[in-house]
Design a protein that fits this description.
473 residues; alpha/beta; Rossmann fold; Helicase, Ruva Protein, domain 3; 4 domains; five-stranded parallel sheet; 19 helices; globular; disordered C terminus
Length: 473
């Protein structure tokens, strides 16, 4: 029997739905808002949470990660009466198990619950059996834990691993984690920097060469692939490979053998390939810039490393970890941190991710070399300027948002009719509403008290629309 929570404020829905869940033999509880649901998840171990999107206090799409951070890390299934493709994409990216529209088919619900519970049971069994050596991978965010689950599965398999993520997120650390947790751990981990391979030297660097095979080949030279015999070949930034090198690499991955330049015989090589990139290889394949057949050879297991701004709760752990390491490098005592220093790091966007964080901490500790505690004034100047500008912009936006909502200019020489005045007022009201809600439809409905259909009718009446590309609940 599983323990299931329904977070939904529509009694007409959750009453019969909870009854059906209990008919399936499961224990079912209800929360009518997200805040209550979050408290319940932290107090009780739930297996599944059915989460509505439009709740009185928050969008369910924004709350998925917070529910998964609970000790039991339940599987979250979005169920909504306002389904759309954007919401489905956002839900799955935020870690939802599935995305359903109301009213759901109870037959589908039965199958879905069964599959989710089966997946959960296997996941928990796997976590108990496999203790992953994380080395220097720091953090407990659910998105990071999802990465580590894939790494743990990949480590016990010999399939290729494809790692994606922004620059500085730690893709090479993930690759090393696969290697050190695999049966190949005692053999070489060979890194190939694909951004720095000259096309005219690529075959020599990868395959090696024999003495005299070309001008300047004064002795036999073992290639990087041969050095990975029995171990792991890590192709860093594989998206930067030249097309001719892609073709040669595909042949090696298919046959696991190659011929060094100038050699008469082919060499058989047993290695496991892990690749990483910060580029979108699917788009590159569509554009003809990356071989489709090579792409599918590289992607047996896919690990996407989350950006630091999407795992903000890990910033404190990373901060403490690197402060200790950097202070040790400088040969000084580990420094303490003030609350406002920690708050500053938590507010920052970290476009350069963990690499940027370590660089900032290096500079900060150097600035505070003789002081025992780090404060915001020790941060690099460009970062302090960023915070100053952000504070000014926030103040300006607050003043703008608190300005009178509607100001209609009236021509006294030609006083408007009442219906004309209403039209002008409505138009300016809509302009302010769009701006204040940041083109978020659900937020606009809450601020104005209008229904979604009523809001769209009013927008259409005045020829206005929510700006394209902005987020909707």
């Amino acid at each position: 029997m599983a323990k299931i929570l329904i977070v939904d404020d529509d009694e007409m829905f959750y009453d019969p739905f909870s009854f059906y869940i209990e008919e399936l033999g499961h224990n079912c509880e209800i929360a009518e808002n997200f805040h209550d649901g979050l408290n319940m998840v932290h107090k009780n171990d739930y297996d599944i949470v059915f989460l509505d999107v439009i709740l009185p206090d928050i969008s369910g799409l924004e709350g998925i990660g917070r529910l998964k951070k609970a000790p039991s890390s339940p599987e979250v299934i979005i169920i909504t009466g306002q389904g759309d493709s954007y919401g489905a994409e956002k839900a799955l990216k935020n870690g939802a198990w599935d995305y359903l529209e109301k009213p759901p088919s109870y037959t589908n619900i039965k199958l879905l619950v069964g599959r989710a519970l089966e997946y959960r049971e296997k996941k928990l069994q796997f976590c108990e059996q496999k203790v992953l050596n994380r080395e220097f991978i720091i953090g407990n965010d659910p998105k990071l834990r999802d990465c580590l689950e894939v790494i743990a599965r990949a480590a016990g398999n010999d399939g290729s691993v494809f790692i994606t993520g922004e620059t500085g997120t730690g893709k090479e650390l993930m690759a090393k984690a696969v290697h050190i947790n695999s049966p190949r751990a005692k053999r070489n981990f060979v890194t190939v920097d694909c951004t720095n391979i000259p096309v005219n030297l690529a075959e020599s660097l990868l395959f090696g060469h024999t003495k005299g095979s070309f001008t300047g080949a004064h002795s036999d030279q073992e290639g990087l692939i041969r050095q990975a015999e029995g171990g792991t070949l890590f192709l860093d930034e594989v998206g930067d490979l030249h097309p001719s090198v892609q073709k040669s690499l595909l042949s090696i991955l298919q046959n696991k053998k190659f011929r060094p330049l100038g050699a008469k015989k082919e060499v058989i090589c047993n290695f496991r390939v892990i690749s990483a990139t910060n580029r979108d290889l699917k788009k590159m394949v569509k554009a003809g810039h990356f071989r489709k057949d090579l792409y599918f050879r590289l992607v047996a297991f896919h690990v996407h490393v989350p950006s630091l701004r999407n795992r903000a709760d890990d910033i404190k752990l990373l901060m403490n970890h690197y402060i200790y390491i950097i202070c040790d490098e400088f040969g000084i005592s580990t420094k303490g941190v003030s609350k406002d220093f920690t708050d500053s790091l938590m507010r920052y966007e970290w476009s350069g991710n963990i690499r940027e964080l370590t660089n900032v901490l290096h500079a900060t500790i150097a600035n505070a070399m003789n002081e025992p505690t780090l404060y915001p004034h020790h941060l690099p100047v460009d970062m302090r300027i960023h915070f100053c500008k952000a504070g000014i912009k926030k103040k300006e936006k607050h003043e703008e948002n608190n300005a009178p909502a509607v100001t209609v200019e009236i021509n006294r020489t030609k006083f408007p009719e009442l219906r004309e005045f209403r039209k002008l007022a409505e138009s300016e009201y809509l302009d302010d509403l769009i701006k204040l809600s940041e083109s978020n439809v659900s937020r606009a409905c809450r601020l104005s008290g209008a229904s979604r259909s009523g809001l769209y009718q009013l927008l259409e009446k005045h020829g206005k629309r929510m700006k394209r590309g902005t987020k909707r609940d």
